[in-house]
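note to self — DONT lose this again. spent like an hour looking for the file last time. sequence + predicted structure for the chain T wanted, 269 res
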Amino acid sequence: MYIPNADQVTDLAKLHRFIRENDFATVISVADGRICATRVPLILDHARGPNGTLIGHTARANPQWRSFDGEAEAMAVFDGPHAYISPNWYVSAPAVPTWNYATVHAYGRPRIIEDTVLLAAIVDRLVSTHERDMPEPWPAPGQLPADFKHKLLGAIVGFELPIERIEGKFKFGKNRPLNDQISMIQRLLLRRRKKDLREGRASSSWPTHGQPQTRLATFRVKIGFRFPPPNLSATAAMTAAPHCSPRCNTPAAIRSAEYPKCSRSTASL
């Protein structure tokens, strides 16, 4: 992936946090000479291997799994928040339109998991991960009839992808002057406030007094975060993007990108 120095993220803990918070991935590989892609939720086992291991399953009817031979390389793409940025939002000129976004690419050589006990454990873990924040978590699959569960497990194939290489790109406008970043944030916040008003939700507001760095710090505090100053302007550019994880009431861009856990951050797997 092409990553300018200003957008590159190499901190493995930050990249793992991003994966956990944006775990619906696109797995891409080459099968029978053709590029294949499948959208699947993945589990990150951060303790397995130097960069962690991704675990998931796909439909047995999906031919892509046949390329998971442990030798051919594949990649998993994890996409986070993103937003169109208009040049009219900047103070300085000339400028051009752009798109800000956060993404992590993980590369490795996936291999299939045929063992039914391990496969059942993968399914149970995925279910528990995504049910735990529900008001009334679903108690199954442990309560499913054994024959019914066995039949369903036969229709899927498990796989694991030990991460050999991992790349993070958080394009948040860090290359722009500070005043441009602040102006961009204000416009993104305005878009979010309008969206929240339409949908009847409260929205974070941008402080209007003080020096630029002070205003950025004040905004951090208002939304409940304490970020290291060198990274502050990098994240702030996406704070108000209208893409928020259902797992937390705070902006997903900040939680998932570069910073400490929010009050309801997903626990480590």
